[in-house]
Amino acid sequence: MAHEETVYDALDHAHGGEGQWAFGTGFDDPLAGVDTTIPDGVDAADLGAYCLMLGDDALVLCQRLTEWATRAPELEEEVAIANCGLDLLGQARLLLARAGSCGVLGRSRQHATDSIPDEDALAYFRDPDEFVNHQLVEADGGDFAQTMVRLLVASTARLALFVRLRESRDPVVSAIAAKGVPELTYHRDHAARWVLRLGDGTAESHRRAQAAVDAVWPLTADLFTATDVERRLVEQGVAVDPAPTRDEVRDVLTMVLERATLTVPAWPADRPSPGRAGEHTDELAPLLATLQGLAREHPAATW
C-alpha cells in the first residue's frame, strides 16, 4: 500500500526533512529584501530600543486580543479580532527582528539557544521588567466593550505615529510603518464602529460602553510623552515625537465618543510612561506566562 502523506509529513518536507525549532526556525527572514543598514549618525542601541518599544506594544496587545478567540459575540467578530491580532503579530515580528539586528537582545539570548531567531528570543525569553510596552496594552481586557474601547485608543494613537514614521530615515522602520498604516486604519475603524454600536445601542450596552471608556481613559496619560531615546531619534529623523499627535488622537476619540452618545472623560495630564521604563502592572506577568510558557518549557524543541 502506498504511503499516504500526512500534514505532518508535508510540514517536515517543506524544510528539507530537517527538524525545525517549534517557535520559528526555518521560516523566512522577516526582514528579507529590506535594507537593514543603520543610517549614518544613528546609534544602533537607540534604534533597537525604539523598535523594541513599538514591537512590545504590538506583541502584548496581540496577546490580549487572542484572549477573545471563541469568546466574541459574533462568529464574524472572531475572524475580525483574529485578523487584528495577526496584523499586530506581524508588526511585532518585524520590529523585534529589527531590534535584534541592532544588538538589543540582553538576557533573552542567554536563555535561548543560538538557533532561535532574534525576534523569538525577544518575545519568549525576556522577563516582564524587560518589556517596554505602554500599560494601556497590558491592562486586562475586561468585557467586550472595554476591549473595543482599548483597541480604538491604541490603534488611533499608533496610526498617528505610523503615518509619520513612513518618512523615517531608517528603511526598516519606514517599511514597517508603510505596511502598518492600512492595517491600523482597519483596526481603528472596526473598533470605532463597535463603540458607536454599543454606545448608541441598548441601555445596557450604553452603560457598559461608558464604563469601558471610564476604565481605559486614565491609561491615555502615558501615550504622549517621549522618552530620551525617542527625543534623540527624532532629532536624527528616525522616530516620531508622540506629543504633536496628541490633538489629532484626542479629536478622533472625542468625535467617536460623542457620536456614540458617550461622555468624554477629562483627559489625564501627560506623564512619562512607566511601561517604557519597564514598570508594569501586575497584569503583565500572567499574560506573558501564557505567551511564553511553551517556549520556556521546551527551549530547544523541534518538530
Structural class by helix and strand composition: mainly alpha
CATH homologous superfamily descriptor: Ferritin, core subunit, four-helix bundle
Question: Number of helix segments?
Answer: 12
Radius of gyration (Å): 20 Å
Poorly predicted parts: 10-15, 17-26
What is the strand content? under 5%
Tell me what the CATH architecture is: Up-down Bundle
Helix content: 55-70%
Describe this structure in words.
The protein has 303 residues and is mostly helical. The chain has one domain: Ferritin. It is 57% helix and 0% strand. It has twelve helices and no strands. It is globular and about 55 Å long. The two termini are 26 Å apart.
Could you name the key traits of this structure?
303 residues, mainly alpha, Ferritin, 0% strand, globular, EC 1.14.13.149, Ferritin-like, 1,2-phenylacetyl-CoA epoxidase subunit PaaC, oxidoreductase, Aromatic_CoA_ox/epox
Task: Please outline the helices and strands.
Elements: H1 7-13, H2 44-66, H3 75-101, H4 107-111, H5 118-124, H6 135-138, H7 144-165, H8 171-199, H9 203-216, H10 228-235, H11 246-259, H12 284-297
Helix pairs in contact: 2-3, 2-10, 3-5, 3-8, 7-8, 7-9, 7-11, 8-9
Short description:
The protein is mostly helical and 303 residues long. The protein is 57% helix and 0% strand. It has helices spanning 7-13, 44-66, 75-101, 107-111, 118-124, 135-138, 144-165, 171-199, 203-216, 228-235, 246-259, 284-297.
